[in-house]
Amino acid sequence: MAPSSSAAVSPEYFNATNSTELRITCIVFLILNTIFVALRYVARYYHQNGIPSLGWDDVFIWLGWIFCQAVAIGGITKSRNSFNNSFHIS
User: Fold this and answer.
1) How far apart are CA 54 and CA 45, in angstroms?
2) To which H or E segment does residue 50 belong?
3) Tens place of pLDDT for every residue, the chain, 90 residues?
4) Are 33 and 72 within 8 A, CB to CB?
């Protein structure tokens, strides 16, 4: 009899995911992104002795911050057992 081309995969293989580590990483980056963007504006405020004028770099900082937050939130929501639910083991 010829060997089978597909190997049987155990249910434990599908249950072993990195979703917890992904969620922790996403939460850490949510916090770090916010802290560093806030520190940038605090430093500009104290460096210019008042409310600084906003330029193109500020627009890109906010757009980058929004993008990073969206990616981190997407990682948190998709890591909630989405891998386990996408496969049906009979």
Assistant:
1) 11
2) none
3) 445 556 666 767 666 677 788 889 999 999 999 999 999 988 888 888 878 788 899 899 999 999 999 999 999 888 775 555 554 444
4) yes
Domain membership of residue 3 (yes or no) is no
Give the domain range for residue 53.
18-82
Residue type, 3: P
The helix/strand/coil state of 18 is coil
Q: Is the residue at 41 inside a domain?
A: yes
Tell whether 72 is covered by a domain: yes
Rounded Cα distance, 74 and 90, in Å: 29
Q: How many domains in the chain?
A: 1
Instruction: Please check whether residue 9 lies inside any domain of the structure.
Output: no
